[in-house]
Amino acid sequence: MKLYGTLTSPYARLTRIVMLEKGLADRVELVWTKTRVADDPILAIHPSGRVPVLILDDGTVLEDTAVIVDYLDALAAPARFAHSADRRDWAYRGIEATARAMLDGLAVWAREVIRPAGEQSPGIIEHEARRAFRLADYFEGLLAKHRLSGPLTMAQIFLFGSLDVERRLPAFTWRDGRPSLVDWHARISELPSVRGSRPPSLP
Ligand SMILES: N[C@@H](CCC(=O)N[C@@H](CS)C(=O)NCC(=O)O)C(=O)O
Q1: Do 41 and 77 belong to one domain?
Q2: 60 in a structural domain
Q3: Domain range holding 179?
Q4: Which of 20, 56, 78, 114 is the most buried (most CB within 10 A)?
Q5: C-alpha of residue 12 to centroid of ligand 1, in Å
Q6: Within a domain: residue 199?
Q7: Coil, strand or helix at 134
């Protein structure tokens, strides 16, 4: 199967982390592509033009991080992510959803600031910046609880993906005054799956 991503997509990186955590690297070919360009190559793969997208060997096209994680988790036992035994741990599920919301908001912020200066919306930037820093405070206070400190969970993967947006968005200065988050991020960054999911350097 083939997993398409761009060098900058945080969502694509999250699916690579899950692929590595599940020991599936030898079954997945990574394909680096581009989006939002003329003759967008991903449009030849599927009409939404979004990454990540996983093409199964029978040609089935799976887009969306949650669907791809679901598929990869089901492929190799033991189930740990979409199919973990504790999907009915609603306190945890709520936190996972909030970590996902953080990444979704940061993706909007990061996209807004790469638009031409005259087309950017200060209102959207301010709204998303407030959300991102508010959620950084929330997670700073929560790190010791709710499966954020133990073995890697989807909540942790979404939180890592969110914090990692700092590489594209220097204005997201989440490190200031959040020592627990800084320590947590440093530890997660060293996990083999997280290191291995880094995109190759730009040509
Ligand atoms: N809900 C999707 C979001 C994926 C997404 O926003 N992908 C971006 C890159 S980070 C994309 O492909 N953008 C290209 C476009 O919108 O045309 C998921 O979870 O996979």
Answers
A1: yes
A2: yes
A3: 90-191
A4: 20
A5: 8
A6: no
A7: helix
For 146: left if phi > 0, alpha if psi spans -120 to 50, otherwise beta; the answer is left
- Cβ of residue 65 lying under 6 Å from some atom of ligand 1: yes
pLDDT, one tens digit per residue, over 132-175 is 999 999 999 998 666 687 889 999 999 999 999 999 999 999 99
How would residue 202 be classed by pLDDT, with cut points 50, 70 and 90? very low
Q: Is residue 46 within 6 Å of ligand 1 at its C-beta?
A: no
Residue corresponding to tokens 């900058």: 8
Closest CA to 157 of 96, 108, 86, 94: 96
Assess whether the C-beta atom of 49 lies below 6 angstroms from ligand 1. Answer: yes
**Tell me, what DSSP letter sits at residue 82?**
T
Residue of 33, 37, 38 whose CA lies nearest to 55: 33
Strands 2-5 and 29-32: parallel
Tally of helices (H runs) and strands (E runs) in the chain: 7, 4
Tens of pLDDT, residues 38-60:
888 888 889 999 999 999 999 99
Tell whether 159 and 119 lie within a shared domain: yes
* 66 located within any domain: yes
What pTM does this model have?
A: 0.95
Q: Does 24 share its domain with 57?
A: yes
- Cβ(98) – ligand 1 distance below 6 Å: no
CATH of the domain at 144: 1.20.1050.10
